[in-house]
Design brief:
protein serine/threonine kinase activity; transferase; PPM-type-like_dom_sf; elongated; six-stranded antiparallel sheet; Phosphatase 2c, domain 1; Ser/Thr_kinase_AS; 32% helix; transmembrane helix; 16 helices; 22 strands; single chain; Phosphorylase Kinase, domain 1
Length: 587
């Protein structure tokens, strides 16, 4: 792999070619890069830095890797350590699978290089005591991952505010000592700082050696970055200004501009999720990342759900915490990941949203959702008076539109039921709980159980068929049937581990003779045993509900024989008739 080192024996040099200064690692992410180095008043330049951006990266998902090292321990040993650190770190990040998570990737890459430098510094007399600083940024999707040790620095300019993102690992107060307490190659075991930043368009990052920040004041660095000249011009200006000071040291600057960000990608969320640990299951009253946990709303086998107060935004939210279970961590992460991805891609007033706290705030894995004032459809359908035709149609049509939005995005919900429908106090509706949704464009992980609730699962699912849009239509039909019937199921409730039998659905008119026959026909089609007899899609179902009263329809459902609708009762009556006939014959 060819790495662009920034060494120049004299004068000011830039190492990034024009074609590399602006690159789009994948669609939507554009980064501008500028770099410059100077040996200053030293005989040799012991700084080494590189930035890899654009399509040259073999690692999909990672947008840019920028690293800077400042050598110590003698001119030759210091420069060798710095170059090894930067080259090895970039190569190590590229070679690992992205699914490991960027924090782990960067930590493993840095640790491997540290052990190599440590070993060489103790086995080669010419490199005795070789060591260096290392400050690196890995831009991945919409996040910046930082790894740091030593006294090089990383700054961020955002909205004309300059923030120092690193801490000098030196004796005494920052900037007052050059004695390092942490560095690459000093010890066999690495102890580096890690941080994650959420990127914003127009963010500007500066990675620099102590020859820059040790000569320029904070205000001078801010002024240079805030001029918003091109990254290359800015890097040159900063280094020129640093080496113009008396007793100038090696000075190196890398400037990165975030020009555009991609939409949230599934891979971005997968990488981000991998970074956060699963914590022990929390309890009411705890405060986690400035979320104060209130009432526990659900305590399932795999998730615990709380109503919480966001102290920073001063609003109520819902927090979902996966329960640590041996062997199931990947599946639990996947459930939250699905909800996050769907919320970022599906735009519907009837589908739940997902809130994404800043990376700097988060310390563990959980999901944050808005708190919707209202009640579940399950609670409403069990309460008197029964749901009216007008209200029920309004709810049903909104639900079909929610499903239509998901299906258009290639998403199958797989757990449509009244418990997963929120009727908002303001008249709105939200379809929630997308943790078991099927994403067509992604490989399905092995599941520890069939997703869905048995009483709402279509017949083909019990035969092992994969969930499709038609099985969502079936679940929606059962949901709407229960809403109007006051809780009854068209085929009866399916108990756990029981094998259901699907005959003919009980007509809705059995429970609600006041409702029109056309609605009975609509629901009977939605819950048809054969998926080919159901509505082709949710849009067709919505159309039927919206225009059902306008079309001609039978006044009642086609008559069904007692033998077909209730064979047990049929044979009871036949037996009674035969008994009466026998008694008459014997009289």
């Amino acid at each position: 792999m060819q790495v662009s080192g920034l060494e120049q024996s004299s004068g000011v040099a830039a190492s990034v070619s024009p074609s590399e200064r602006t690159a789009a690692p994948y669609v939507g992410l554009h980064i501008g890069v500028g770099s410059c180095t100077h040996q200053g008043g030293r005989a040799e330049n012991e700084d080494f830095a590189a930035c890899h951006v654009g399509q040259r990266l073999r690692q999909p998902g990672i947008g840019a890797i920028a690293a800077l090292a400042d050598g110590m321990g003698g001119a030759k040993g210091g420069r060798t350590a710095a170059e090894l650190a930067v080259r090895g770190f970039i190569e190590g990040c590229i070679e690992q699978p992205i699914t490991v998570g960027v924090p782990r990737i960067s930590a493993k890459a840095a640790d491997a290089v540290n052990r190599w430098i440590y070993s060489m510094g103790r086995s080669d007399p010419e490199l005795n005591g070789m060591a260096c600083t290392l400050s690196a940024l890995v831009l991945c999707g919409r996040r910046a991952h930082l790894l740091h040790l030593g006294d090089s620095r990383v700054y961020r300019l955002r909205d004309n505010e300059l923030s120092l993102l690193t801490t000098d690992h030196t004796l005494g107060a920052p900037g007052t000592s050059s004695v390092l307490t942490r560095a690459m190659g000093v010890e066999g075991r690495l102890c580096a700082d890690h941080a994650i930043e959420t990127l914003q368009v127009h963010d500007r990052y500066l990675i620099c050696s102590d020859g820059v920040h040790g000569r320029l004041s904070r205000s001078e660095i801010l002024a240079a970055l805030a001029r918003r000249a091109a990254p290359q011009e800015t890097a040159i200006q900063i280094v020129e200004q640093a080496v113009s000071h008396p007793a100038a040291d090696n000075a190196t600057a890398l400037v990165l501009d975030v020009l555009a960000l991609p939409e949230t990608q599934f891979a971005d969320l997968e990488i981000a999720n991998a970074a956060w640990p699963l914590r022990s299951t929390p309890s009411t009253g705890e405060v986690i990342d400035d979320y104060e946990l209130g009432d526990m709303l659900a305590d399932g086998m795999y998730m615990r759900v709380f109503r919480a107060t966001d102290r920073r935004a001063r609003r109520n939210v819902i927090l979902k915490f996966p329960k640590p279970r041996p062997g199931l961590e990947d599946l639990l992460r996947s459930a939250l990941l699905r909800e996050m991805w769907i919320a970022s891609h599906v735009r519907s007033p009837f589908v739940t949203e997902m809130l994404d706290p800043a990376d700097e705030r988060r310390t563990c894995l959980y999901g944050v959702l808005p708190y919707y004032e209202g009640e579940t459809l399950e609670r409403r359908l069990l309460r008197r008076p029964q749901v009216s035709l007008a209200m029920g149609l309004d709810v049903a049509i909104k639900l079909t539109k929610a499903l239509a939005s998901l299906h258009r995005a290639g998403i199958v919900h797989r757990d449509v039921k009244p418990d997963n429908v929120i009727l908002e106090a303001n008249g709105g509706l939200k379809l929630i709980d997308l943790g078991v949704a099927r994403l067509r464009q992604f490989e399905e992980p092995e599941s520890f159980e069939a997703p869905g609730t048995r009483s709402y699962m279509a017949p083909e699912l019990f035969a092992g068929a994969p969930a499709e849009e038609s099985s969502d239509i079936f679940a929606l039909g059962v949901t709407v049937y229960r809403m109007f019937s006051g809780g009854a199921y068209p085929y009866g409730e399916v108990e756990a581990f029981a094998q259901p039998r699907f005959g003919r659905p009980a007509p809705l008119s059995k429970h609600r003779p006041d409702l029109p026959a056309w609605l009975d026909h609509c629901l009977a089609r939605a819950v048809a045993v054969d998926r080919r007899d159901r509505y082709a899609d949710a849009v067709e179902f919505a159309f039927e509900l919206e225009h059902g009263s306008m079309r001609a329809a039978p006044q009642s459902l086609a008559k069904v024989s007692l033998y077909e609708s209730n064979p047990v009762r049929f044979w009871q009556i036949v037996s009674l008739i035969l008994l009466i006939a026998l008694l008459i014959a014997l009289a």
